[in-house]
From TrEMBL, chains A, B:
The keyword GTP-binding does not apply. This is M20/M25/M40 family metallo-hydrolase. The lineage of its organism: Bacteria, Pseudomonadati, Bacteroidota, Flavobacteriia, Flavobacteriales. Pfam families: M20_dimer (PF07687), Peptidase_M20 (PF01546). Residues 1-18 form the signal peptide.
């Protein structure tokens, strides 16, 4: 225990590593080495053989730490599951991370191979490659490891493994049973998950779920996220003449599908970005306590707007966190005829809008899609779920084909949940800093099935830096965030709940 | 003269060729042979060598008929000019046709080579290839010649050449001086024409212009067109965040360029297709006499709507011909983000609409573009003519980049013009049928420079069938239309004006 207290003393000193804590140093170094090894196994979510090689590596690494592990077959890629030996009297924590990564285009990276980790320091605006042995005497927290999945999401997995080692070295008796589920299709929307969670629900049984994915708040402060928005999509297609027609011969005569689509889309939102569809925001109330929590997030509107290069944001909420409490309605794509050099003087045959809707717990995806369809019908459209035939076209003036995407619903754990309070307290104590509490984040983590099936509270405890270039070329992980991750995992797994 | 009268007697019998008129038969056959030869020289408007080979062929063919011809250099491809020896006491007719053709994609044609004319008969719904020698005993007017530019616009050129032969054979003394200008960039919008007409204005001097391009009215009746709409274009681009942003992180916060564009476009037209921009239709009045002329065109709305597969047309005019008397506003292309399989959950960086506007004489292109820009400004947009910088984006909420296309203005010759009356009378007499008089056609023929520079009345006298697949695969010319063309040219060039 003494050792642990000593570690905490070191940790509370913040991001600078104390000279006298060789243990943390050692396990950061171990993490760096092991992460290089792990990243070197490509993990393209689209490549079955890649995924299997990662599963093999993980089995070895978890088993070495005393976990019992299983490869769980699903309708898609297999899941990786591991658990430390269980004791009946302890609460169980289930960690969710993922082993798959986004595809890479090596030509867009500033290094030869995105799967060969490169160490870099920043010199002014330039990143400069450094030899790994220069870390021996100077474990610089601002230097970064560049490579696919260093942050998303292999880094946190390796941080957890090394924290287990450190806890063992310090003979810490864990106050929790520990289960770990590693998704292998997170970057492909985790389609096999709902059925797999049903099938393996006894195996996954736990008291709470901790998701270690995504970045900490941009301020760099310790962060607990209580929920995330869901998502669903709609594809809307309107129709003009059966084939593209000469805009001279039929301009002013054949209806233009682009104008029909523009008029429909324009009817859905006001100039400030508020959705005008009946009932779209129903059931959402933000009481003063909630507003206080949202306002406490240290966002800087000037920085956000500068990064986006916008003068004024949409006005669904009066500030960033408030805007995330509402479902969104986004035109993610538009297409009709041709633009640019290929533009031709035609009245196009059709016009298509791709819509995505980010969901909140009050707005179930199926319900929202229903409201949108009702709205479209009220605008005088005849709704079809397939391409209209010539007969359909001649029977109706305004036809629209609506194709519905699948629904991933939102989740949001109560801000007063005991496990949430525990996580916040641990992080606060570990880092001697206020914890950023995010009621709901904008993006979507596909862990809905765990929550709906296991009926347990879920929290996202991110470990990596906000500027990690997730999903993009030059993905990276700050070495300081490895220290952060080990400290955070150590705190969670060594602190008994009251 | 006797011979000519005999020919007229034959002509007035309509589309069936009289057994006793071997002359017409002979010259139709000559036309078919010569057209095969001409079409065999590819004429892709984008290929300089193609165009030159056509100019060489034309020089030979016109000179054989006693024309003096010249290749006239321009800022682009050279023009072909030819004139029969001039007599001072005769009025001069200037024929305009074009020698260039649209590019071909041979894989989309139902014949091996679009430049090798194929003869086909229709068997039910199927086209069946026929040997050319089967024409010797049966010059079937419903059979067709398939090949690039058979109709657009090499067919009419060869019809004119063979009419000259027939007139000569019959010793007809022409009551007109005849000039011919053949454009070599019509399919590329005749960009060199304005300057060339200025430069060669003395050479082109004439009393009236007859354009033999485009098809006769869909009814197949003799047709005179008094004008055509002009065209100009606008490209409109609206902006969201500087780079595409994650629709989860920033949905409800970063403005969406697709909604901005949709709202703008929706403000431009009502649900019936009428333009709502102030002043767009100013100056256009259709008096009862004009309305009568428009109504006399034997259009069949049911057929048109069936061909387009639409239930109700736009309501700018109450019928097809009326709608063409007004300028149009057409969205010919839309693009933002990605659609279909490539769709991604992003807020796009920008959204673009390609607009074309067909012009009428009352609506000068520059004036109309000004009205549209004024309207856009009134919708609260900050208008730029280039990509906005980061500073521009942070200084203005709604930015739009407007790129203006060049203007080809409309022309419309008075319906009471003496040369127009002459053409109508000749056609009426030649075919013993009412002539379809079209006040203005929807499409654009780029002969504006002739009219503005030479200040002469212009008429389109089309020669080919309406269903000729102009610009598309399987372009074709009905053999009956060769008879039509020779009769029409013969009538025009053999009838003295009163």
């Amino acid at each position: 225990m003494k050792k642990i207290v000593a570690l905490f003393l070191v940790l509370t000193s913040g991001y600078a590593i104390a000279q006298d804590d060789d243990d943390l140093k050692t396990y950061i170094s171990h993490t760096i080495n092991e992460l290089q090894e792990f990243v070197a196994i490509p993990n393209d979510a689209l490549d079955h053989a890649d995924i299997n090689r990662n599963l093999t590596w993980l089995t070895k690494k978890f088993n070495e730490r005393g976990f019992n592990s299983s490869i769980l077959p699903t309708t898609g890629e297999s899941l990786f599951f591991a658990a430390l030996p269980m004791e009946d009297n302890k609460p169980t924590i289930l960690f969710y991370m993922h082993l798959d990564g986004q595809s890479v285009d090596p030509t867009k990276w500033d290094q030869p191979n995105p799967y060969h980790v490169v160490l870099k320091s920043k010199d002014g605006d330039q990143w400069k490659t450094q030899p790994f042995d220069s870390l021996t005497n100077n474990l610089n927290y601002d230097w970064r490891l560049f490579g696919r999945s260093t942050s998303d999401d292999k880094g946190p997995i390796v941080m957890l493994l090394n924290t287990i080692d450190l806890l063992k070295k310090n003979n810490v008796s864990l106050p929790f049973n520990v289960k770990v589920i590693l998704d292998s299709e997170e970057e492909k929307s985790s389609k096999p998950l709902p059925q797999a969670v049903k099938e393996y629900r006894d195996l996954f049984k736990a008291d709470f779920l901790v998701i270690n994915d995504g970045p900490v708040h941009v301020s760099g402060k310790p962060t607990v996220v209580y929920g995330c928005r869901g998502i669903t999509t709609l594809t809307l297609t309107t129709y003009g003449p059966l084939k593209p027609q000469h805009s001279g011969h039929y301009g002013n005569y054949a209806p233009n599908p682009g104008f029909q689509l523009a008029q429909l889309l324009a009817s859905m939102k006001d100039a400030n970005g508020k959705v005008l569809i009946n009932g779209y925001y129903d059931g959402i109330t933000l009481d003063p306590t909630t507003m206080e929590i949202l306002k406490n997030v240290p966002d800087d509107a000037t920085t956000i707007n500068n990064n986006l290069s916008i003068k004024t944001p949409e006005q669904v909420g009066s500030f960033y966190q408030e805007s995330l409490q509402y479902p969104s309605l986004n035109i993610r794509g538009l297409s009709s005829g041709w633009v640019g050099e290929k533009a031709r003087t035609i009245i196009p045959e059709s016009a298509t809008a791709e819509i995505d809707m980010r969901l909140v717990p009050e707005s179930d995806g199926t319900k929202l899609k229903g409201l949108v369809k009702k709205h479209i019908e009220n605008q005088g459209f005849y709704i079809m779920d397939k391409l209209p035939s010539k007969e359909d076209r001649m029977a109706h003036d305004k036809i629209i084909t609506i194709t519905e995407g699948s629904v991933t619903n939102a989740f949001r754990t109560d801000l007063n949940n005991a496990y949430g309070n525990f996580l916040v307290d641990v992080l606060k104590e570990s880092f001697a800093e206020d914890v950023v509490q995010i009621r709901i984040m904008g993006g979507t983590v596909p862990i809905g099935p765990f929550i709906s099936e296991l009926k347990i509270p879920a929290f996202i405890v991110p470990m990596v830096n906000a500027d990690n270039n997730q999903h993009s070329p030059n993905e990276n992980l700050k070495i300081g965030q490895i220290a952060y991750g080990i400290k955070a995992f150590y705190g969670i797994l060594s602190t008994p709940m009251d």
